[in-house]
Amino acid sequence: MLYLKNLITENTPITRLSNDRSMSEENKKEILGVSETDLEKQDDYMKMMYFMNNSWYYFKEEEENLGYPFYLIDELMGSFLAHKMNMKAITYFLARVKNKKMGLASKNFKQSGFHYYFGKQYYDIYNNNTNLSFAPFRVENIENLKFLCVSDENREILTKHILEMLALDVYMLQKDRKSANLQFEKNPISKYIDLAPLYDFSNCIPKIEEKSGLDLQEVVLRITDRNIQTLVKQYPYFANFLSSLLETKMSSTWEEICEFYQFNQNSEAFEEVYNYYKTKEESQRRYLGMYLK
After folding, report:
1. Any residues with CB less than 8 A from the CB of 66 and at least 6 apart, and which?
2. Strands (E), 77-124
3. What's phi and psi for 288, nearest 5 deg?
4. Alpha-carbon torsion, ordered 77, 79, 83, 87, to 10 deg
5. What is the pLDDT of residues 93-130, one digit of tens each?
């Protein structure tokens, strides 16, 4: 089902997104800030870029996605949950492009003068500052964020924000927090480095499968049933933040999303999404509750 298409009403705000054809592929690459070796599927990302009214936007077209049928709904959910928890994250709005395709768009979050690095930067600095090869399952990776930071205060702030992101991704069961889906932001004056606003909350699975257990790919730490126990023990802030997320129900947040975008709450699409999140939040409370006792 095309959920957005079936949720919109005559009152739903929809932006007509057009493109300034004077912007070249090189302009787009400059805004992305990467070379071809730094970001997989760079061409696909550039096709998502629009320049309108002197601002850059990214547009995700709604299409059938059998693997992740709620992928665009999860974008809204992740953004809303992040803002409710006072995390930095992009804001989505509904948009339609020239071919009348519907989707979600967000404004480019990059601030002028700031420097931005994709998640791969963490691997590079880690490998340059330790005698160890990067091991994705090692909880100690979080401590090694210090190699990115200019001071202990900077490390504490970045660590806090990383833990918040990990907790949100665990709650939503995000399977795709790869290098391209995470950026660091460096202040040119203070030299502080922090997470850039979070984006790309799609590709979340509905529940933890018994056979495979918890297994979520992350830039800093790949989270599994084994290391989440260590993570909870070593970082009480992570445990408390995850507990708070469990109390922030996805089903009620979905109702808030529908109010905000003036979606049709008397539709089959609304009911399917509501039931999906209701089942998922209950499953997550049971499963993650084992580690948060």
Report:
1. none
2. 92-96, 102-107, 115-118
3. -75, -25
4. 120
5. 999 998 788 999 999 999 999 999 898 877 777 777 77
Q: List the structure tokens of 59.
A: 């547009």
Whole-number Å distance between alpha carbons of 163 and 142: 9
- Report the candidate in 149, 155, 200 with the shortest Cα–Cα distance to residue 179: 200
Q: Is 246 helix (H, G, I), strand (E, B) or coil?
A: helix
Whether 9 contacts 264, CB under 8 Å: yes
Whose CA is closest to 165, among 190, 194, 143, 136?
A: 194
Report the distance separating Cα 282 and Cα 272, nearest Å. 16
Instruction: Enumerate helices (H) and strands (E) in the chain, giving the number of each.
Output: 10, 10
Distance (Å, rounded) from C-alpha 240 to C-alpha 132?
31
Can you tell me the distance from the alpha carbon of 103 to that of 100, in angstroms, rounded to the nearest whole number? Answer: 10
Q: Is the pLDDT of residue 79 over 80?
A: yes
Q: What is the pLDDT of residues 174-191, one digit of tens each?
A: 998 988 899 999 999 999
* pTM for this entry: 0.95
Considering only CA atoms, which of 72, 94, 108, 93 is closest in space to residue 196? 108
Cβ neighbours of residue 57 under 8 Å, at least 6 residues apart? 17, 49, 50, 51, 95, 105, 106, 107, 108
Which residues contact residue 197 at a Cβ distance below 8 angstroms, ignoring those fewer than 6 apart?
A: 88, 89, 90, 109
